[in-house]
Amino acid sequence: MIKKLLLATAATALVATAASAADLPRRAAPPPVFTPVPVFTWTGFYGGLETAYTFTDSQRITTVGISPVNAANVATGARPAATRISDDGFANIGGTAGYNYQFTPGSGIVVGIANSIDWTDLAKNRAYLGSTGALSSFRQGTDWVGTLVGRVGYAFDRVMVYGLGGLAYGNVFYDANFFAPNGRLAFAGRHDDFETGFAYGGGIEFALPTDSFLNTFAVGRYLGLKYDALTVKAEYVHYDLGSRNVLVGAIPGVGVGSGYISRFRTEGSIVRAGFNYKFGGL
């Protein structure tokens, strides 16, 4: 009897223990942790270096005579009524700096402002042999060209296409020298100064992924420069620095009459390629 009672008590205790264990929470593996991939944004300051190929349109030079004798020389072809100068070349180096703001990270509209300066060092001579055998020579050049423009574009993640437009500025110089038939300098004029105008164009820019091998060529990383991304760009810009009258005055004792006025015009195109370091936004 006692043995049966002990067995019944043990069975009851085992059932109660099993029931209590069933009420305990089950042990399960922790859910996987997903780290969200950061969404790229073009918002932020940037600055970098560039090189450029610059080519001028057929820049027109027109000349009129001030006094009747000078006007007659232009009319008869002794002095050129009009001529053109074109030039092209690679800029040695240039730089840019600006700020972008992207309305929606990832893909979306981007607006910004950029200031770029390129050392063009363009210069070209033009000679004209008149009907009387007198030589007329012109020289036109552009030392450097800068653009301060607004940019509006659309970003497809790390690729952005954009248009630009705004102010163009630079240093230009114009020379005009008219010689007498005997080879002596008879008239001379010169202008060398800062000029302003307008610019417009467009381009494309690509932000390199952080694991791209091209980042190994970013000099800034070895100098301790802290930046968010390295971008590469290509863009086209047309600039127009306007026109300027140059007084080609008579050399006393050689030139006859009051002289001439030669009007020079400077405009051209720049194809830029370069890289920028992108920094954080405001």
TrEMBL record:
<dbReference type="InterPro" id="IPR051692">
    <property type="entry name" value="OMP-like"/>
</dbReference>
<protein>
    <recommendedName>
        <fullName>Porin</fullName>
    </recommendedName>
</protein>
<dbReference type="InterPro" id="IPR011250">
    <property type="entry name" value="OMP/PagP_B-barrel"/>
</dbReference>
<keyword id="KW-0732">Signal</keyword>
<feature type="signal peptide">
    <location>
        <begin position="1"/>
        <end position="21"/>
    </location>
</feature>
<comment type="similarity">
    <text>Belongs to the Omp25/RopB family.</text>
</comment>
